[in-house]
Every structure is written in C-alpha cells, then in structure tokens.
TrEMBL record:
Record membrane topology: Multi-pass membrane protein
Family annotation (InterPro entries): Cat_transpt
Classification via Pfam families: TrkH
Keywords: Cell membrane, Ion transport, Membrane, Transmembrane, Transmembrane helix, Transport
Protein known as: Uncharacterized protein
Subcellular location: Cell membrane
Transmembrane segments: 43-62, 108-128, 164-187
Species in which this protein is naturally found: Deinococcus aetherius
C-alpha cells in the first residue's frame, strides 16, 4: 500500500497504468525485493521514498528457512519484540504465549549487526572506488547484492572492475550468510570456556 501511494502519480512508473494494473504492479514490486529480483517498472524512475522502502525490504529479506537473503523476517520480529519488551519493562520476551530464549535474542542481534557492518563496509568501498556514481545508486546495489536479490537502478554496468569484485564477494557472503561465515572461523573449546566472569553493571546504553 505504501508503494502504491508513493508511485500512484509517478508518470514514469505507475502513472501510465490503469488502476487495476497499478495495484498489481505495487503488489509485485513489493514482493520481489525479498528475493525475486524481477521488475515490471523502471526502478531508477521511482521516488526516493519508494527506493528507501525497497532497500528496507531487501535488507529484511525473506522468511527463515527460505532461499532468500536478508536478515530474515523472524530476526526482525525478535528485535522489534525485544525492544517493545524493554519499553514495557518486561523481563522475558513472550510472543504468542511462548517465551523466546535469550540465545535467540543474541543470535538475532548478532545476525543484524554483522549484516549491517557488511553492507556498510561494502557500500563504503563502492563509494571509494566509484566516486562518480551517486550514493543512493550504490547503496541500492550493495543491499541488492548482499540480499541476493538482483534488482538494480541501471547502475551495475557503470561500476568499475574493483566495484564488481566487491559486489561478487558481497553476493557470496550474502548467500552463505554473515553469521555462518563468521562462525566458521570461530575457535571452539578455546580459552575461557567454562569460566564464569563477574557481571559488569555500570555500562551506560542509550
């Protein structure tokens, strides 16, 4: 619905379409950023707000267990639920009558943090190697590659060879998942295993 409202009067996207076709185009173009990678309208011609929405959809991605990329919808749900839980002053995260284990909260936070750092680092590298291209175009390309979506603002062919290498590595890491990649190098049974350290309660957050 947001995409429909934002692009309703855009003469370069939904404007020339009949009313039923506008609803269909909005539905299709809001689903495909979650992993499909198809486009029925010119992505580059969309408004800035619509591009922001598509980037957000690509960043979140598909459902857990699917072949889509992104941080996954369940990860976002846990993070939002955890934040709302803290605002309400609750100790445990309760969702639909079930308690979410703290391990899942840590995992959701880790996945989101690693994914955000990966996207930020790759986008910075693309901006540094392709200074002639705009920020929005390169951010869109970065998130699309990390989420293995395939959408583009007609920019991919303008990116130089170092930038294409960055996108290729990003697509690989996005496919296997940043958490999987990071934990593959972790040392199991290393120093400190089985040792319980005293808690630090004087850290200011926020």
């Amino acid at each position: 619905m947001l995409l429909l409202v934002l692009e309703w009067a855009n003469a370069r996207t939904f404007g020339p379409l009949e009313t039923p076709a506008r609803f269909l185009a909005a539905f299709f173009q809001s689903v495909t950023p979650r992993s499909g990678g198809f486009a029925t309208v010119d992505i580059e011609a969309m408004t800035s707000a619509s591009l922001f929405l598509l980037i957000a959809l690509m960043f979140v991605g598909a459902n857990s267990g699917s072949t889509g990329g992104g941080i996954k919808t369940s990860t976002l749900a846990i993070l939002v639920g955890s934040a709302w839980n803290m605002v309400r002053g609750r100790g445990d995260l309760i969702v639909f009558g079930r308690r979410v284990e703290p391990e899942n909260l840590v995992r959701a936070g880790t996945v989101t943090t690693l994914y955000t750092l990966l996207v930020a680092a790759a986008c910075f590298a693309l901006l540094a190697t392709n200074p002639n291209l705009g920020f929005t175009h390169l951010l869109f390309e970065t998130v699309s590659a990390a989420a293995t979506v395939g959408l583009s603002m007609n920019t991919t062919h303008l990116i130089n060879d170092p930038g294409l290498v960055i996108l290729s590595v990003l697509m690989y890491l996005g496919r296997i998942g940043p958490l999987t990649f990071a934990t593959s190098f972790s040392l199991r049974g290393g120093q400190g295993r089985g040792v319980q350290y005293p808690p630090e309660r004087d850290i200011l957050v926020g």
